[in-house]
Amino acid sequence: MRDIRVAKPYARALYDAALEQNALAEIAADMDKLRELIEASEELAQLISSPVLSPQFKSETFEQVFADATHPLTINFLKLLASKQRERYLLAMMDVFSAIVDEAAGRLVAQVTTAVPLTPEQETQLTQLLGAYSGKQVRLENTIDAEIQGGFIVQLDDTVFDASVATQLQHLRQQLAHGL
Fold first, then answer.
1. Which of 18, 66, 108, 135 has CB atoms 3.0–4.6 Å from 70's, for a disulfide?
2. Residue by residue, what is the 3-state secondary structure of the chain?
């Protein structure tokens, strides 16, 4: 809960600054790349979360590592976080920033849980179906959970579509137990 409270003003400030500089697409791409790097690099994740490393060291490291591959606003944002010692909330800030961008674009995010990864064709078809249902552009975030056994679970705003094999089997067990 605290992560979100800290993340919101920083994410909003980044969004507003990106709009002012007409760099929203570049900053959004930077945030996506940065998330991938953090998830792929244990060293980067430790750098961001370490309370032992000085803000100055972190700021210099961010500049050295990202200066050539990211927008200057992204570098300034990372340096600001380091100076305020808020970099450990970076992932939460990225989530809030992404939500702000999606909302401003009239996009909904659908959380999709499947037992196996969706094929590109399945993603396209599901995106189109959910877009037709909601009347908005939909972006999928897929999570793999083998426990659902098959099918899918989709959460779109406050609506949940549960077409998982595990849930269907549970319903069958309940019907058999009650003699229906």
1. 66
2. CHHHHHHHHHHHHHHHHHHHCCCHHHHHHHHHHHHHHHHHCHHHHHHHHCCCCCHHHHHHHHHHHHCCCCCHHHHHHHHHHHHHCCHHHHHHHHHHHHHHHHHHCCEEEEEEEECCCCCHHHHHHHHHHHHHHHCCEEEEEEEECHHHCCCEEEEECCEEEECCHHHHHHHHHHHHHCCC
- With tokens 């929203």, the residue in question is 24
CA distances to 3, 35, 105 from 88, rounded to whole Å, are: 9, 13, 28
Give the chain's domains with CATH numbers. Answer: 2-102 (1.10.520.20), 107-177 (no CATH)
- The residue length of the chain stands at 180
List of the chain residues with pLDDT < 50: none
> What HEC string does 24-44 produce?
HHHHHHHHHHHHHHHHHCHHH
Task: Provide the pairing of β-strand 107-114 with 152-156.
Answer: antiparallel
Cβ atoms of residues 156 and 130 within 8 Å: yes
Predicted confidence at residue 1, as pLDDT, reads 54
